[in-house]
C-alpha cells in the first residue's frame, strides 16, 4: 500500500518578503527533467528552484544553491514522512532581501511543501488480488448488497461481469457465478481528509 498525490496543485507562501511558490505533480523518474525544465523556463527570474522526487526505489532532490539540506532535502523528507510516492514536489523561491537563517529557511520550504501536498490530496493505492466473474442480475444484486466496497469495474450485458476482491470469493454460493480469471488489480481510493473538497 502506498500514497500518490490526487491532483496537481500550487501554493504561495510569503515569509519576510521572500516568496515561496509550491507545486506538486504526479511523476515518474523519466518525466522529472521535462517538468523541471518547464518550471525553470516559466520562472526564469526566480532565485532558487528546488525539488524532490520519490518513488518506491528512487529518490532525487536538489537544494539549488540554498544551504545544504535546507531546501530540496526538506521536501524529500516530507514525501518520505507522508509516504507519498511517484510524486514531484517543487518550490520556487524569490529572495526578499533578508536572509532567513538555515533553520527558518528549512521550515519555510517544509511548510510550503506541506501546504502544497495538502491541497493536492492523496490517494492510497493498493495492489489486490481480484477475480473476474460473471453472474446473473439477480445474483449480482445479492453479491453487491453483501460486498459493496469489494466490487470493481462492473459491466452490464446479458450477464453482469465484474471484479471481486478474491478474499471474498469463498463467501459466494458456488453456483451463483462463473469464474473467468484471477489477476492483480490496482485499487486507488481518495484519502478521507480530501473526499469533501
* Structural category: alpha+beta
Number of strands: 10
CATH topology (level 3) name of the largest domain: Ribosomal Protein S5, domain 2
What is the beta-strand fraction?
35-45%
How many domains? The number is 2
| Overall 3D form | elongated
CA-based gyration radius: 23 Å
N-to-C SSE string, H for helix and E for strand: EEEHEEHEHEHEEE
> Helical element count?
4
Write down the CATH class of the largest domain: Alpha Beta
Question: Largest sheet at a glance?
Answer: 5 strands, antiparallel
CATH superfamily of the largest domain: Impact, N-terminal domain
Q: Specify the CATH architecture of the largest domain.
A: 2-Layer Sandwich
- What multimeric state do the chains show? single chain
Quote the average pLDDT. 91
Cα(first) to Cα(last) distance is 23 Å
Low-confidence stretches: none
* Helix content bin: 25-40%
Record keyword descriptors for this entry.
Ribosomal Protein S5, domain 2; 197 residues; alpha+beta
Describe the structure.
- This protein has 197 residues and is α+β, with helices and mostly antiparallel strands.
- The protein has 2 domains: 2-120, Impact, N-terminal domain (Ribosomal Protein S5, domain 2), CATH 3.30.230.30; 124-194, Alpha-Beta Plaits.
- Helices cover 26% and strands 40% of the residues.
- It has helices spanning 32-42, 72-82, 102-120, 137-146, and strands at residues 2-5, 9-15, 18-26, 48-54, 59-62, 87-94, 122-135, 151-156, 160-165, 178-190.
- Helix 2 (72-82) packs across helix 3 (102-120).
- It is elongated, with a radius of gyration of 23 Å.
